[in-house]
Every structure is written in C-alpha cells, then in structure tokens.
Amino acid sequence: MLPTEPAVRGSASLFLSEAQRQGLKAGRRMLYVGLEAASEQVAACLRVEVGADVVARRKMMTANDVPVRIATSYFRADLFGGTRLGEPGFVRPSLQAAIVDLGHAFGRAEESLIARPPTGFERETLELDPGEWVVQVLRASYSTTDTPVHVLETICAASRHVFSIAQVPGHDEF
C-alpha cells in the first residue's frame, strides 16, 4: 500500500507487516544462503565481473499459504563475505541494520521492473500455471560513498499481486 507507515517500513519484515495489515496470513522461509555466480544484471549492479562469487540470500514469501514472491539479496563477497550476511537464517534485526553495522550508510537506490516468462525454478517455486508470467523488480542500493552494498531481486507471480493505493492523510490527491 502507498504510503507505507514509518512503523511498518522500520519493521523486521515489510512484507510480513503489510500482509498482516491487509488481513492475510503471511509467511516466509529461507531457500538458500551462500555464494553463487553473479548474473549479468546482478554483476552490473554490484560492479563485479559476470560469474564472480556473490553472497546470495534467497527466501520465499507466502500469503494465505500461496507462494507469491521470491526475494534474493545479493552482496559483494569482497565486502560482505565472512560477515553475518553470509550466515544461514534471517538476519536480526534486519539486513539494513547489518549493512549499517558494517560501516555503510544508505545513499541512493535504482530500481528496474521487467515482466517476463518465468524460469523453471521460478515456475516450480511459485507454483505457477502454464503461461503465467512473473514481474522482476531489481533494486540496487548504494552507500553515501557510491559503493554498491545491496541488490534485491524480487520475483512476483504477476497474477497474485494487487497494489492498493491509499490517500496521504490530509491530502485529496495521489
């Protein structure tokens, strides 16, 4: 929903908080944490060579037990390998807090959105029907010194997302 309340934005999981606020039974589970080869898109965002090892943290989100989203955080192995960002399980209190604890302050982000057919992994994990597409959102975050510190790739089942729009309190326009 827009706008997101500051208390929700600062929660341990924006997805869980938003889904619960909308009356949905939200869930998430970690699918993978470890090193993997950077794709062309991830490599460009992190400013590493294609195929270079990057730290990947992949999880799946569900709403009312239906898989709706795969979210993968990518980090440069030279900056974040050997830190708690590479350890199994969810990072507490949040990934953002861990990045700040490692000395990186958020400066800016760039986001792109692509609608496309799913890969086999995405089709199976999201339990998609034949012909169903996904939406890929790729957000690259950079520190105040322009160091790439976090790339978040979110793959959504295109037919399972509704983005409700709410009025900003005190205003009569969007």
Automatic annotation (TrEMBL):
Single biological process term from Gene Ontology: negative regulation of DNA-templated transcription
Gene3D superfamilies noted in UniProt: Chorismate lyase-like
InterPro entries: Bact_HTH_transcr_reg, Chorismate_lyase_/UTRA_dom_sf, UTRA
GO molecular function: DNA binding
Alphabetic keyword roster: DNA-binding
UniProt keyword DNA-binding present: yes
Domain UbiC transcription regulator-associated, chain residue ranges per copy: 21-162
Top-level taxon of the source organism: Bacteria
Protein name according to UniProt: DNA-binding GntR family transcriptional regulator
Species, as recorded: Nonomuraea rubra
